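Troubleshooting log. The previous structure file for this entry was overwritten by mistake, so regenerating from the original sequence record. Sequence copied from the archived sheet and checked twice against the printout by T.R.
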Amino acid sequence: MLKRAAAVSVVVGAIAAVAPPLATRVGAQPTPIAGQTLRQVAAIDLPGPPGRRFDYLTIDDEGRQLYSAHLAAGLLYVIDLRNNTVVASVTDVPGVEGVAYIGQGRKVYTSNWYENKIGVVDLGQMKVVKKIPTEDKPDGIAYAAPFHKAYVSDERAKAVAVIDTRGDRAITTLRFDSETGVPQYDHIARKVYVNLQDQNVLAVID
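Regenerated output below.
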């Protein structure tokens, strides 16, 4: 039986949204908005070794599930947000860092640092069904749903791997003169942004 080892706290903030009055004269200062601090509302006990490093989290809004990467244990926790319980612990994700929910196909991509691969987790089976090779330390993942692509920062390779999410295969690698950080997809601009860690700049991928 797996022992209780760590707890993730789900927090919510309550803010009294009292709009400040409009200034009636030049130089008048608006009234500050009153607010409350965030407070813990739940704790979710997770299986696995205590005191070990966790990494990324992501949520499936429609399915109401949270996916939590337990890097040191090589586990991906699937948490039901309707009752705050762990419904699965997915193995075979060594050194899991980045996590992305891929709605088309009901799957999760994991960046498995210790083996330099992207794991494809079938949520129907709750297990890894495929692995996609990368070069050196895959990290954050951005999913661009309209284009059926995922962008994975291949950090130490100074690159971003582009994955076809319909076929679960790498289609190209974008090279940079810097280690790459966490990519993010902007659904309004329909572009991907990735930080170039050695240069203190953002690269924009069209």
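Residues 4-12+39-205 form a domain with the Methylamine Dehydrogenase; Chain H fold (CATH 2.130.10.10). Archived copy saved in two places this time.
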